[in-house]
Amino acid sequence: MPISPAGRGGSRHPARGFTLIELLVVVAIVAILSLGVGLSAGGLFAQPGAVSAAERLVLADRRARDQALLGRGTLGLFPREDGWTLMRRDGLAWQAEGSTLSLGAARLVWEVADRPYLPSLDSPGTEAPPVQIAADGGSTPYAVTILSGSERRVCRAPAGGVLACE
Length: 166
Fold this sequence. Notes:
By secondary structure, the protein is an alpha+beta fold. It has helices spanning about 20-40, 50-70, and strands at about 75-80, 85-90, 95, 100, 105-110, 115, 130-135, 140-150, 150-155, 165.
């Protein structure tokens, strides 16, 4: 048996790498951390229903207000039973801008300027939408009741204010 310069038998370079146990421990730690992040963020594990529909409406309302402020123009919301269509004034007529925000299975009950509003599933025409957002951030007051299964959530946007849900 050959002897090393240090006087010991064996090779000069010990085996490098990780053992199977070390790899399994690291994979388990990463899985636990990923699960914790997913649960705290609520993204992948969120339950569909009135809460997530309300959050989507609030975000869409804020986006529409930002577009009105940044674009220095009037935008409109054309209510539908399943969401709304964002519209932009083009001269004297109104044009749909982008796609319709649809909340899928949730049903919406609208109130515009403190009066019930009965939307349809039709596409908006060129007439003025009932909810308008001005370039200064002011808007028509409206409320939306979100019905999803047995859940019920009410969101309100006062004149000039942003949409907030109870």
